[in-house]
Design brief:
Elements lengths: L17 H14 L15 E5 L4 E4 L14 H4 L7 E4 L4 E5 L18 H5 L7
Antiparallel strand pairs: 1-4, 2-3
Organism: Muntiacus reevesi
Keywords: 2Fe-2S, Iron, Iron-sulfur, Metal-binding
GO molecular function: 2 iron, 2 sulfur cluster binding; metal ion binding
């Protein structure tokens, strides 16, 4: 065991036991899965928004955010293993941001939501 030298000194065991390492590994695996979940269809049409030049945005990648098309942290609390796409607007303009999460040009809509696969999918389900 470590020793106490003064106020605020961290006391910890000299070595982690195998059981303790397994407990931490299994806890981390719950919050940070090795295989990320698939994004789900949030909506079947893009959302038009005005982006402001120089402002940084976080586009929802997982499809679970209640603040589409932007991230509200749902990916973390639902343990998806996904992260939002952070981007900075180069100019102030109106754009269509993807909400079907199948675009090939994230975060922008490329019309993929018009495909039969997306239109037949249920909201909240992966493609």
């Amino acid at each position: 065991m470590g020793s106490v030298r003064g106020v605020g000194t961290l006391v910890r065991p000299a070595a982690w036991t195998l059981s303790q390492r397994r407990d931490i590994t299994s806890w981390l695996a719950q919050w940070f899965p090795k295989t990320p979940a698939k994004p789900v269809v949030a909506l079947k049409a893009p959302i038009k928004v005005e982006l402001v030049a120089g402002k940084t945005y976080r586009w929802c990648v997982c499809g679970r955010s209640k603040k589409q098309p932007f991230c509200d942290g749902s990916h973390f609390f639902k343990r998806t293993g996904l992260s939002p796409l952070k981007f900075k607007a180069q100019e102030t303009r109106m754009v269509a941001l993807c909400t079907c999460k199948a675009t090939q040009k994230p975060p922008y809509c490329d019309g993929t939501h018009k495909s039969e696969q997306v239109q037949k999918a249920e909201l909240g389900s992966p493609l």
